[in-house]
Design brief:
The complex is a heterodimer of chains A (397) and B (175). Chain A is mostly helical and 397 residues long. Classes of the chains: A mainly alpha (397), B alpha+beta (175). The interface between A and B is small, with 10 and 10 residues.
Chain lengths: 397, 175
């Protein structure tokens, strides 16, 4: 059945985006932080959070292809639709990095050439020691390669999926497996290095080998939340006639499991640094605990305890009410997680959650949903000729 | 009164058994149990088997493990013999919680998993060395057997056999 993007939904999302634009303009005008860092940090928090959701969708789609999984085939178009935000998301990230290169903001401390200059009073020995990796030309090459290859695969998978609807057969399916495997290997490296380049380099002196996995698990679970919520919504609207309770249950299991993966990685990173107490590592957490204590630990416990306590039982994962409540709460929780990655390094203790933060979150949410819904209208919401479609339709757990 | 015979109906396909069980239940037949080499999806609600309470056991074992681990570490590391490890504060329990988390987690999982496995074996009476109560050893390989007692469904053995014959069974035996 074809998805109808109703006028009402369009208006709501347009209103969201309008709120976002108002928040951006007012925020920029009232932003008294140095180099408008607060404004740009907000662009990055939201830009990265929603970009990461679509990247998580792309990864999850590739995982389905590479493992030849059948259970999510009935929901494949929902995953694809979410992954289609990656083009706009990449563009927003490029604008943000470009603003850094042009010194419109000062979130990337290492982009200032003076820190590498031994004669300057701003010379920073530690950053200068990282110059072989952390320099602007190489940063731009890496960024463009990541974004280029990811968007290439997003296009490729989408195109092949639409082609499969027309011609059918198993040829596309088997070839998808190869492409997905190539993507997954590339993604395994680049998801780590991208999070080092884009996020870890905000706290330039600090490093953590676990950081890439932590960011990756965050993007995976954020995607799964959106996936579960959108699937439930579409099913209730009657767009997914072949999706039964077992599909929702499986998706809920993913959300439950990856919440634990995220918790595990967050805690592993925290505990090792807390325990060894090495000054160059521990500063990262000292900033967060001193200035963001309630937000920092509160975010962690919400993202851990809500899925664990509420979604543990089998029946809870089969009842959409529980999934919606937990999903909405930890969706905000994971937005705060991205906020906690970016804000302390950009603003230190001058942080706020005010109209600018909330308004821009709503604005980006509107843009994201508008793009995703628009992608839903471009193709039927149920795939036609996938070899495992029939198996997926009869899923029963 | 002579002791009632038990009827065993053997199938060679799980799907045939599931469909047969649905037909039988619709006719008011009560199926006592099914022996199968693997879990048959959707069979439990058809033959009226209640959901397992093993999960409740697992939760209780986990709770015991968590309590043991936390109280043990509290006693060893805070009360009895506080040690200075990397200059970490050790006057109060809460100051050391991050270090205690991995052990608490492992101990919870250890007790929950072992308790669950042992409970399962004892409840099914399949501990090593115990003679199996399985009527047909081939149900651990490629056959599926339904166990029925005529009195459960208030029928004679003949009526029951007649119903069973329509369900694609490959053998009916009385023991």
């Amino acid at each position: 059945m074809d998805f109808i993007f109703t006028k009402k939904a369009r208006l709501i999302f347009a209103a969201f985006m309008l709120i976002g634009i108002v928040a951006m303009v007012m925020g920029y005008a009232n932003d008294h932080s140095a180099h408008h860092n607060r404004f740009w940090a907000n662009i990055f928090v939201n830009g990265f959070f929603f970009f990461a959701i679509s990247l998580g969708a792309l990864f999850f789609l590739a995982l389905q292809y590479a493992t030849e999984a059948s259970y999510m085939v009935a929901l494949k178009r929902v995953i694809e639709g979410i992954s289609q935000y990656i083009f706009i998301g990449s563009a927003i990230l490029i604008v943000f990095f470009l603003a850094g290169t042009l010194h419109w903001h000062h979130i990337y401390h290492w982009m200032d050439p003076e820190v590498y200059d031994i004669n300057s009073e701003h010379y920073d020995k530690i950053i200068a020691g990282k110059a072989a990796y952390l320099n602007q030309p190489f940063f731009w090459i890496r960024t463009l390669v990541y974004l280029g290859v990811w968007t290439f695969f997003a296009r490729l998978f989408r195109k092949r999926s639409l082609l499969e609807d027309e011609i059918g057969g198993t040829k596309i399916h088997f070839k998808n497996m190869t492409y997905a495997a190539i993507f997954l290997v590339f993604f395994a490296f680049t998801s780590s290095t991208a999070s080092w380049d884009w996020i870890m380099s905000i706290d330039t002196h600090w490093f953590s080998t676990l950081f890439g996995w932590y960011v990756f698990s965050g993007m995976w679970v954020s995607f799964l939340i959106v996936f579960v919520l959108l699937s439930i919504w579409l099913k209730n609207k009657g767009y997914l006639p072949n999706v039964n309770k077992s599909h929702i249950h499986d998706a809920g299991k993913w959300m439950f499991a990856i919440s634990f993966l995220w918790t595990y990685l967050w805690f592993s990173q925290f505990m090792l640094i807390w325990y060894s107490n090495i000054p160059e590592e521990v500063t990262y957490y000292i900033t967060r605990i001193e200035h963001y204590k309630w937000l920092f630990f509160g975010m962690f416990f919400v993202n851990f305890l809500f899925p664990m306590v509420i979604l543990m039982a089998r029946d809870a994962k089969r009842q959409i009410g529980y999934l919606i409540v937990v999903g909405v709460i930890i969706f905000i929780g994971h937005w705060l997680d991205v906020y906690m990655m970016i804000m302390p390094g950009s603003l230190g203790h001058h942080w706020h959650i005010g109209f600018m933060e909330i308004g821009m979150f709503i604005g980006f949410l509107g843009l994201f949903l508008y793009t995703v819904f628009n992608a839903f209208t471009k193709a039927p919401l149920t795939v036609k000729n996938h070899p495992f479609l029939d198996e997926s339709n009869h899923l029963s757990i | 009164m002579t002791e009632e015979k038990t009827i065993y109906a053997t199938y060679d396909d799980d799907h045939v058994l599931l469909e047969g069980a649905k037909e039988l239940v619709a006719k008011g037949v009560h199926i006592r149990d099914v022996f199968s080499p693997f879990p048959i999806h959707g069979l439990d609600p058809v033959i009226g088997i209640k959901q397992t309470r093993l999960a409740i056991c697992a939760f209780l074992y986990g709770l015991v493990g968590l309590t043991l681990a936390l109280s043990g570490m509290y006693y060893f590391m805070i009360v009895d013999w506080p040690m200075n490890i990397g200059g970490k504060p050790n006057d109060f329990f809460y100051q050391n919680i991050p270090a205690f988390v991995p052990i608490s987690f492992e101990f919870t999982v250890l007790l929950a998993a072992h308790g669950m496995a042992l409970t399962y074996f004892i409840r099914n009476w399949t501990l090593p060395g115990i003679k199996p109560r399985n009527p047909y050893p081939e149900t651990t390989d490629d056959k599926f057997v339904m166990e029925l007692h005529p009195s459960d469904s208030h029928m004679t053995a003949e009526e029951l056999t007649e119903h069973l014959n329509k369900t694609g069974t490959i053998r009916i035996e009385e023991r």
